[in-house]
Amino acid sequence: MEWQPEPESLRQLIQLLNSTQSVDNEVQQQNNQRLEELRQVPDFINYLLFVLVAMKEESATVRAVAGLLLKNSVRQDFNTIPPHVLEYVKRKSIDAIGDPDTLVRHTLGTVIATSVALGKIRNWPEILPRLMQLLDSSEYPVVEGAWDILHKICEECGLELDEPLNDGTLPLNIMLPKFITFFASDLPVLREYAITTTTIFVSKRSVCMQPMIDAFVVELFKRANDENPDVLKAVCRAVVSLLETRPEKLMPELENVVNYMIYTTQHSDPDIAMEACEFWLVFCEQEELVESLRPFLSRVIPTLMRGMVYTERDLMMLDNDDDDAVVPDSDQDIKPRHHKARTHDHHDGGGAGNDSDEDEYVDEDEDD
Domain of life here (predicted)? Predict the structure, then answer.
């Protein structure tokens, strides 16, 4: 008989989940203590999953909170969760893909991706075929939900997807061709998912991506003038990734690529323009490519300089109250300082948050 929640325990959990939205610090502390106690209950995970996928009468916020707690519990306790509980989580999660609420849908995607990453794809062999099948659904929430999960899995497990499964198949040999077909989807969000997810494997220099790289380039540049800003940002990031990892694929059409990136650098959407600017930075960081850019500098440099000019709105937002140009400097203002070189503290698991990338200055009199 399949597990079912005990009504009174479920009621208490719902009450607790609702109270997590309180701004009262004392209430939050009590909630945290109670949640920590509940983590020790063997079927606490089952209750959280039940709220997330089955209690559609509850608010999306309550269901999402249950999902985030579930994800955290899975991440923290994965190695001690009983196998039958994990199987319950897997089965019910798959059945719930495509929830009508976006917040709930994406929270569920995080739970599934976390479970896949910690348990390894080969230990959940049905998940990828199921997700690929759902991409052909006629229901938008199902397709979008499947894409969200696939994107998260590709981010978390990119290297594992380049390795054969137990039956010898390479997942990406099936996934990548399907992904590229979605570059031409009628729905912008699916085009963005497809481009962004496929670009992950360009950046990772995936072995399986290499035979697909020409098709990727062709389909990518068909979206060069996409009307959707998010898709255009994805295109810019993909071009930058190609420049970093497979520049020879851009060199035959370098003039057209440069013209496109100059145009995009001047885009009226500042976010798109910023993504395009990354292209020039990456170009200059690769010594073997720098000379290729020289013929275009007479156009690139003025474009970048124009982008540095403050607009009237920028000037209005600047804080001029602290302008002390006419105020004599104090001794403290003019004391010499010595610049310390930037240092990067790299940790396993990476991420921008792990780097110490700040300029530090040391006052020569700080020991006085």
Answer: Eukaryota
Predicted confidence (pLDDT) per residue in 174-219, tens digit: 999 999 999 999 999 999 999 999 999 999 999 999 999 999 999 9
Q: Which secondary-structure segment (H or E) carries 39?
A: none
Dump the DSSP string for 109-122. HHHHHHHHHHH-GG
Q: Which two tokens stand for residue 17?
A: 């989940």
- d(CA 239, CA 250) in angstroms, rounded, equals 9
User: HEC states along 247-295?
Assistant: HHHCHHHHHHHHHHHHHHHCCCCHHHHHHHHHHHHHHHHCHHHHHHHHH
Domain that holds residue 154: 1-161
Residues facing 362 on adjacent strands: 338
Does the reported pTM lie above 0.85?
A: no
- Model confidence pLDDT, tens digit, residues 247-264: 999 999 999 999 999 999
The interaxial angle of helices 102-119 and 44-54, nearest 10 deg, is 140
Number of separate domains in the chain: 2
Residue 259 within any structural domain of the chain: yes
Q: Which of 274, 307, 340 is the last residue of a domain?
A: 307
3-state secondary structure of 205: coil
Distance CA 191, CA 167 (A): 31
Residue 148 contacts residue 193 (beta carbons within 8 Å): yes
Residues 6+ positions from 111 with CB-CB distance below 8 Å: 49, 52, 67, 70, 71, 74, 89, 93
